Amino acid sequence: MAHKKGQGASRNGRDSAGQRLGVKRFGGQVVTAGSILVRQRGTKFSPGHNVGLGRDDTLFSLIDGT
């Protein structure tokens, strides 16, 4: 069995795209109902009044407002 791989077989060179998580709307911004406010993994932020929680823990607005 060879103890060196044949030439040109790079084992590195992979990278995954970022998940684009984070706050999407900040305080004072006008939003419409259904607008995504925060994309998150787990409930780092909990939903407050007039904010819903999606299956993937995304927070979204339930009404229009600021």
From TrEMBL:
PROSITE patterns for the chain: RIBOSOMAL_L27
InterPro entries found in the cross-reference section: Ribosomal_bL27 (IPR001684), Ribosomal_bL27_CS (IPR018261)
Region (Disordered) location: 1-22
Molecular function as annotated in GO: structural constituent of ribosome
Gene3D superfamilies in the record: 2.40.50.100
Keywords recorded for this protein, A-Z: Ribonucleoprotein, Ribosomal protein
GO process terms (BP): translation
Gene Ontology cellular component annotations, sorted alphabetically: cytosolic large ribosomal subunit
Alphabetized Pfam families for the sequence: Ribosomal_L27 (PF01016)
Keyword Nucleotide-binding set for record: no
Family listed: Belongs to the bacterial ribosomal protein bL27 family.
Protein name: Large ribosomal subunit protein bL27
Organism field: bacterium (Candidatus Ratteibacteria) CG15_BIG_FIL_POST_REV_8_21_14_020_41_12
